[in-house]
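Researcher: Here's a chain I'd like modeled. Treat it as a single chain, no partners, no ligands.
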Amino acid sequence: MNTYENIVIMNASLTDEEIESAITRIKDLISGYGGQILKVDVWGKKKLAYEIKKQKKGVYVLFLYKTASSTVKKLEDFYRVFDAVIKYMIVKLSIKQAQDLEKVEVVPEPTEPKIKPE
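Model: Modeled as a single isolated chain. Structure tokens:
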């Protein structure tokens, strides 16, 4: 299985519930084909650099996942017909990038501050 990074721009006119529903559908699609979701990060509503499908704003969502390459084709086909998605980009991470990603995910956050106030 390969590691992929996927940026999705969703229609900004969607409600929060519709955005959550769309994210859940995408996660279910990846998991349904045997993929493993590593991270989902909602960046929020941002102004687009240029109009896409007559939209000036979009909701950015980052997905990191491991899946077979055949799933990516099915995911792209889904994005083309799914009205909530106005733009997407899927990038296959190199082995080094995937290893670096795993190192970052494993590092625990410190529970106490290192510098204590006096």
